Amino acid sequence: MGMFRSSEALALIRKQLTTIKNLAPMRRENTAENTMNIEPGQTYRKMLHRQVMVLARIRVEGAWKAYCFPVPGKNHDAEEHLWENEGAQMTEWEARPLFGFLEDVPYAP
């Protein structure tokens, strides 16, 4: 299989979210993710596939934005920076279910 394009990766997310859109978000009380200190510049990633990464980045103003992008799938730590050139911005509706621990942090427009 070849490498995903950003549009294909985002389409994969939309398809998965459409099937679960009626589920209520679950709040994780007193977990490490809920009690961590959120600071500008921090990033958090989720792998949807070996070659599809979603990255949430905390901006200077304290809000966050998520990006979906294709990666070669060989070394995810080294591939994380690819969001800058390859990342497709995600809507809040697409991103929130993936990063539930950021539920109290505003999503950047």
Task: Give the tags.
109 residues, alpha+beta, 4-stranded antiparallel beta sheet, 5 helices, globular
Outline the structure in words.
With 109 residues, this protein is an alpha+beta fold. 28% of the residues lie in helices and 21% in strands. It is globular, with a radius of gyration of 14 Å.
SSE topology:
Blueprint (H helix, E strand, L loop, with lengths): L5 H15 L11 H4 L7 E7 L2 E7 L5 E7 L5 H4 L3 H4 L1 E2 L2 H4 L14
Antiparallel strand pairs: 1-2, 2-3, 3-4
What is the gyration radius calculated from CA atoms? 14 Å
Beta-strand content bin: 15-25%
Morphology call? globular
The number of distinct β-strands equals: 4
**Whole-number average pLDDT?**
81
How many angstroms does the end-to-end distance come to? 34 Å
Largest sheet: 4 strands, antiparallel
Strand order of the largest sheet: 1-2-3-4
How helix-rich are the residues, as a percent range? 25-40%
Structural class: alpha+beta
The SSE order reads HHEEEHHEH
Figure out the total of helices: 5
Q: Which regions have little confidence, pLDDT < 50, spanning 5+ residues?
A: 20-32
